[in-house]
Amino acid sequence: MQNDITVRSVCVGKPAFLMVRDGAEVLSGIVKHPVTASQIVIGRTNIEGDGQADLVNHGGPDKAIYVYPSEHLPWWRETIGYDGGDASFGENLSIAGILETEVCIGDIWQWGEVTLQVSQPRWPCFKLAQRTGHRDMVKRFVDSLRSGWYLRVLKAGTTQIDAPILRAESDARHLTVDRAFRLRKNSARLSAAERNELLSNPYLAAGWKSGLE
Predict the structure, then answer these.
(1) Which domains occur in the chain, in start order?
(2) What strand order describes the sheet that includes 93-96?
(3) Considering the entire predicted model, what is its pTM?
């Protein structure tokens, strides 16, 4: 496999006030800013300096790093005029060279001394609407099929930000991020075989499977 994944930027953010909802303050780490250092430390659940407020629905080992292809950003600008700047969708890694249709659940990536594994697509929540300023963004995001994906950290360590990412291993089941997202989007109409395709995949995050069981 080739070194064809380029890291455009690395962004992190700690939980901060985002909005008031139902009379309560909502904290979120969705607003992130670029890392300016030349290298970063990656732990089992986060890039150093990153964090989540809602640890039930965000973060954890299966959602340690959120990746979003930079190739999608022109489409959002042209379609709805959205240009959110750094970490437009709350991503940790903005990358180039690979899309949801090419990435498989269970694929292993090597980034310097850090070993990563693709764990699930991203499913949006209401905070994305607030971050982007588009009230219908959750629906738009789902309908666009431009989900991005999460990585779990198999081996923590330090890496240079500008180091290329090596796709070290592709899972033989070939359940792409795109297919996993489409199946969940149509979960009410899944066949038994399609449901089993998701539930039987050992590398697909448990949280992604939970609504199907």
Answers:
(1) 6-209 (2.40.33.20)
(2) 33-34, 6-12, 93-96, 65-69, 149-155, 114-121, 108-111, 166-169
(3) 0.96
